[in-house]
Every structure is written in C-alpha cells, then in structure tokens.
Design brief:
about 750 residues, mainly beta, Maltoporin, Chain A, about 60% strand, disordered N terminus, cell outer membrane
C-alpha cells in the first residue's frame, strides 16, 4: 500500500467529500469499489490545476491520509474533551490511569471518582449509564483497557438534554465502534504485587454490521490493613476504642458486547449488553475497650459481598434531510443485585445476617434534532421507572446454643421511583464569535416507600423546572471565553435510603434514611482557555459558584445497645452547602518527546445547617479551603522506550462534622514498544518510598470526638503486556454516543 498526503481542500475537489472530522483518515479501496465511487461522485465543471495531472488514470491511489495536529485536551462550548487515543503515554494502560490524568478529576484511595473534589459525579459509557460503572468503579476501570477508549468528555454543566444532574457533572467515556472491514482486537495483562488484571477485546465489521466484544478480570491478593478508632468526650475521657485487623480479597469480571447495523445511509440500530460481577471477602478481628468499664471485648466477623450488575440497551437512529433533522428512539434495562452476608462471633454468642438487595430500572426515551438555518433545536421526552427492594434476615444464638430468627431486626423494604421528563434546547450564533445554548427541562418525580415493620408508607410528588444557559466567545483562533449556568437535582440512591442497620460491628454501625429529600443544586461558571508557546501548549482556567440545598451529609451520633455505647452513622438533609472554586489545568509540549501536564482545583466548603442540626457539629457555619493538585511528565526516549510519571496530592476533605485525611500518590512507568510497535511491555512502580499509607479521620460534635485511622499497604510493583492486532489498529474505531443518560441518583460515598 502507498500513502499520499494531500491538502484537505484538494480532497474536497477530488472526491466531493462533505465532511471530515477525524484527525487521521485512511481509505482502502479495490478497483471495483473505486469504480462504484466514480459513478456516484459528480464531476466539477471546472478542473483546477492541482499539479497532479490525470491522477486517477496514471496513478493508483490506494490511501489518502489527512494529518492535523490537535491537542490532547480540547475545550468545547459545553465540555472538555480528553483525546485518549492522542496521548501516547496511555498506551498499554487501563481506564484507571486515564482517570488519573483527566483535568479536574481525581480518584480516592478506594477508587471513587470526584470532579472538582465532589464525588457526586455520574460516569457514562457512550452517553449512557452502564452496569460496568454502577458497582465498584475502581475495579471496573482496571478491567477496561485504554486502547478501547477514544476520548473522555468532562461536562461540569450538562445541558438540558441530560437528566437534571447533580453537583459535579458527567464523565462520559467514548469507546467507539469498528468502521473498517476486517477483524482487530487487543489483549492485555498486568501482574502486580497487590493486584492483577487481564482484559481482551475483539471487533469486526462485515459490510453494514459491526460487533465488538470484550472480557475483563481483576483480582487481588489478600490485603492486610488495620483500622483504629477512638471515641471520647470533649474533656478527653475515653468512651470506647477499637482496633480491627482486617484482611480482604477481591475478584471481579465484566463482559461487554456492542453491535450496530446500518439499515441504510440514514438509519442505524445500536445495541449494547454489559455484565459485571464483583466478590469482596473480608475477615475482621476486632478488639473493643470500653473506657467506663475498663473491659475488652473481642469479636470475629467475616463478610462476603457478591454483587452483580446487568444492562441492555438499544437505539434506533434515523436521519432525515438536513432541514428535517434526526430522531432517535431508545430503550434501556438495568438490573443490580447484591447479597451481603456476615457471620460474627462475640464471645459465647454468634450471629448471622443477610441483606439481599435488588434494583430494576427501565428507561424509554425519544429525542429529536432539527436545524433551521443557523439555529439548532433539540426536543425530547423520557420515562425512568426504578424499583428497589431489600430483604434483611438476622439469626442470633441464644444462651443455650439455639439459633433463632431476630424478628425485631428482620424485615423487607420496598421503594419505587418514577421520573417523567421533557426538555427543549436551542443553540444559535451571534455574529462570528459568539455562540449561545439555552434549554429548559421539566421533571416530575414520584417516590413511594412500602410499609414495613420499621417504616411507615409514604409517597411524594414533585414537579421541577431546570433551566440551562451557556454563552461562549471565541476571541481568537485558539482561545475561548465561556459562561454557563444550570440548575440540577440529586436523588438519593438505595445506599442512603436503606433502613437496614448493619450491626456486624457492635461499636461502629451504619443505617440509611428512607425520608431523605433530593438535593437541589445551582451552578454558575466562568472559564477561558489560552494557547501557549506558539500553540505547543494550552492553559484553561475557570471560577465557579455552587449552592446545594437539602445537602445530604453523614451524621454521627452516639446511642446505646445492650447497655453499651454505640457510634451510629446515618444520613440527613443538613441544610445548605455553598462552594466557591477555581480550576486550572495546562498541557505543554516543551519539545519533541517531552510533555508536561498539571492540574489544580481549589474550592471552599461552607455549610449553613438548618436549626435542628446547629448543635450536631462544632464545625457548623465554618469555611474551609480544600485543594487537589496533579503534575505529570511523559518522555519519549527513542527506540521505542518511554517514561511516564505523575504525582498528585489532595488536601484533607471536609464533611459536616469533620474531615478525612489527605491523600497522595506517585506513579512511575517504564515502557518499551515491541513486535513492530503492536505491543508494549511495561514496568510500573507505585509509591516506591512509602510502603503503606495512614488515612486519618476526625469528627467533632458538642458531645463527643471521634478519631480514626486506616492503615493499608500501598507500595506496589507491576509488569504489564498489551498487544493490538488486526486491520488498521490505531484508527479502527469511531465513537458512537448512545442516547439514554440516567444520571440523577446520588450514589454511595458521594
């Protein structure tokens, strides 16, 4: 095959192409295919003097390639796009490494994603919620190879086409679909001292039909950690203290299949099937000392937490003429199951507990797009039906050795949520430099909880309007100023609502609150990007204000059980939370083979609690400054050798009653391209000079002080190998965003 590089304007003249949005385009054609194209392409009345006389007759053009240098990070009117396929340092890695490098995004020690420090963020795959990210995000990211990701969209103020999103925004992973005939795929594996993962994928296209399949697995060695906590009065008198020596291991698997079929040039069917399963097994040896008694009580508790998620979606997309627009019909079904069991031995007594949870979610959606001259219109309606259930069974031993069902603590909990929604959005330019996008979304929410032994039946109806506005000004070719406003909502998920009280630990317990209200968020942002060093780098800076009403926060309180003090964590709508923040990130190519990236987020935490919670925290009505930083360097050392290193540091994170410890991490990777650059061998070192981390926590109320520490091993070494095979490996996919976007539920740890 030969390749000729020719100007884009010449390509238009020669082949009559109407659009070209890819950065690198390669077309392979046999003589029959060229003959078919020649019969369909209109001939221009005037043939320009291109200097390529009788190109079609004298030369066999087998490939056309267009090259345009674009930055890895691209700033759009309503989103920031990280082009993963353009970042050479991410080859041979996983989605976990991708997330580490995303601007404004951070991952906690346990893999929870945060956008501008807020874990109330939705993770989509191709524009839809997925079972892959509904469960344990950290494990899901490790099973998704970076080669399957074309780009990641970071949306801090989602438009009205999306569900009325929460405080942080959306992270949308675009994986793509095969666009050329033939088969291609990848195989990757990482063997580490802490954890290992494997993944493989294969994709193919025959005519109008394309299919992609992938399988991933992750597992860990038993990890030993120590959790200590101490509860004391304000005067320093110990109420109780506890030491927990814990060992846990994990094993997860996920399977994905995506199919598309082009019925004709204007009609397409897209279907996706995803499944993932994770098993977490934990063994705990606890020692609790009660200060008022001076006695020590030992306990042994084993937990087993299998969880599985499944989703199926299908989209019908029909494009009409340019004026008539496009319509899409979408359906999605998601199912989640978890079966948490524990067995505890407390001296001469024992207990077994089970919490069986199930959630079903059905979504139907219709979207319509149309353009009238320079005005773009979007309309849509949507229905989401969620059904959540939880069954709890507790069996306890008696003094005479019998095991009986504890009816006071055994129950069933049912919860339904229906959301009706409709939206309208418009976009239009003002002159040559200003673009405006505005929208309005209506959502009707119906909440219902079934009556049980512990909960009275209740029903709640709400109707809400959510406006959205963004204005951008292009004041130079590579610089944009933009302003946006949005109102959002965040509904609590089962994690926050489930009234099951986990009493496996006799001293530290947790319970959900089925009476929680949804959070309401107002968000205003002003941002701008600038070209640096003659377009070899870029800088983006933004300031924002966010206000959250009915803010959901964890609340610690002391209670008694069995004559002893128990620390209970539940959740409450404490009042209003206000944040002022600034985000800055930059990406610079100093010279060939040397790239630098840096991010920083600084924001305030300030709560204004309702009167009933004024005395639940000694930190009420106080303002705290929080920051997150990231710096990365990747080097192309030549002859296929690469070095990639990054370091990030997060300040302590505030809560209503206290704070969690600061977190930092240093990662170093050495890589070598092999097998004609189709494969990569790698060595990764995490925290080479720190074997373990001590993550402290602190909470203070007018009645007690709670101090804790979580010590876990962190230093690790890993060997990795990834191989891409098949036809047109680098450019065999193009992204295809799905239509359904369910992103309104506040999930665990957010």
């Amino acid at each position: 095959m030969t390749k000729k590089i020719i100007p884009l304007t010449l390509l238009f003249l020669l082949f009559g192409l109407t659009a070209c949005t890819t950065y690198s385009y390669a077309q392979n054609a046999d003589s029959a295919r060229r003959a078919e194209m020649d019969s369909k392409v209109p001939k221009p009345a005037h043939t320009p003097d291109t200097g390529l006389t009788d190109l079609a007759g004298r030369h066999r053009l087998e490939a056309v390639e267009i090259r345009r240098r674009l930055p890895v990070i691209e700033n759009k009117e309503d989103k920031i796009i990280y082009h993963v396929a353009k970042d050479a340092s991410l080859r041979g890695t996983t989605a976990e490494e991708v997330f580490r490098k995303l601007p404004m995004v951070s991952l906690s020690y346990d893999g929870k994603a945060a956008l501008r420090g807020n874990q109330n963020v939705r993770i989509f795959i191709n524009g839809k919620p997925s079972s892959i990210t509904r469960g344990n995000l950290a494990e899901a990211l490790r099973m998704l190879p970076s080669e399957q990701i074309k780009s990641v969209e970071i949306i801090t103020n989602p438009s009205s086409k999306y569900d009325a999103e929460g405080a942080a925004g959306i992270i949308n992973i675009l994986t793509g679909r095969p666009t050329v005939s033939g088969v291609n795929g990848s195989i990757g594996t990482t063997i580490g001292t802490r954890q290992s993962n494997q993944n493989s994928s294969i994709a193919g296209r025959i005519g109008r039909f394309g299919i992609t399949g992938s399988v991933g697995n992750t597992w860990s060695y038993p990890i030993a950690s120590r959790i200590t906590s101490a509860n004391s009065t304000l005067s320093g008198k110990t109420i109780f203290s506890q030491t927990n020596d814990s060992r846990n291991r994990r094993n997860g698997t996920q399977i994905s299949v995506a199919m598309d079929y082009e019925l004709d040039t204007n009609t397409m069917l897209v279907s996706n099937l995803n499944f993932n399963q994770l098993l977490l097994v934990t063994s705990n040896k606890m020692q609790t000392v009660y200060g008022e008694e001076g006695t020590a009580i030992g306990a042994s508790v084993d937990n087993r937490q299998p969880a599985g998620n499944f989703d199926f979606s299908t989209d019908y997309i029909r494009k009409f003429s340019k004026k008539a627009g496009e319509i899409s019909l979408s359906f999605q079904y998601l199912n989640g199951k978890n079966n948490t069991t524990y067995k505890g031995i407390y001296g001469l007594l024992s207990e077994r507990g089970q919490n069986l949870g199930n959630s079903d979610e059905y979504t139907a959606q219709v979207d319509f797009k149309r353009s009238i001259q320079k005005i773009a219109l979007d309309f849509g309606v949507k229905l989401v039906d969620r059904n959540i259930s939880s069954t709890v069974a507790i069996d306890s031993s008696t003094q005479i050795g019998e095991t009986v069902r504890d009816m006071q603590r055994s129950y069933s909990f049912g919860y339904t949520q229906k959301v009706w929604a409709g939206y309208a959005a418009v976009g239009f330019p003002i002159g040559k430099s200003v673009n405006v996008k505005a929208g309005l979304r209506w959502e009707k929410t119906i909440l219902k909880a079934e009556e049980s032994a512990h909960i009275a039946q209740f029903m709640n109806h709400t109707n809400d309007l959510f406006p959205n506005l963004s204005v951008s000004y292009n004041y130079s070719e590579n610089s944009t100023l933009k302003m946006s406003y949005a109102k959002r909502i965040q509904r609590p998920s089962l994690y926050y609502l489930n009234p099951f009280r986990n009493e496996a630990d006799r001293s530290n317990q947790m319970q959900g609150n089925p009476n929680l209200r949804s959070e309401i968020i107002q968000h205003v942002e002003l941002g701008a990007d600038f070209a640096l060093l003659r377009n070899r780098g870029q800088l983006y800076a933004a300031v924002y204000y966010r206000s959250t009403d009915h803010s959901i926060e964890p609340i610690l309180e002391t209670t008694t059980a069995g004559g002893r003090t128990v620390l209970l964590q539940t959740f409450q709508n404490i009042g209003t939370n206000k944040n002022i923040g600034a985000s800055v990130f930059t990406s610079i190519t100093l010279f060939k083979g040397v790239n630098i990236k840096a991010n920083m987020d600084v924001y305030t935490y300030a709560n204004d609690p309702a009167e009933k919670f004024l005395y639940s925290s000694r930190m009420a009505n106080k303002t705290t400054v929080i920051y997150k930083t990231f710096a990365g360097l990747d080097l192309n050392l030549g002859k296929g050798y690469m070095l990639d290193s990054y370091l990030f540091h997060d300040s302590p994170q505030r809560t209503f009653q206290g704070e969690f410890a600061a977190f930092n991490l240093w990662n170093i990777s050495f890589k070598k391209k092999v097998l004609n650059e189709a494969a990569i061998l790698g060595l990764t070192i995490v925290d080479p000079f720190s074997n373990s981390k001590n993550l402290g926590s602190y909470s203070e109320t007018p009645l007690f002080i709670q101090k804790g520490n979580f010590a876990l091993p962190f230093r690790s070494f890993g060997l990795s190998f990834s191989w891409q095979f098949g036809k047109n490996r680098p450019n065999a996919y193009r992204s295809k965003e799905k239509q359904i976007r369910n992103n309104d539920q506040k999930k665990a740890g957010q």
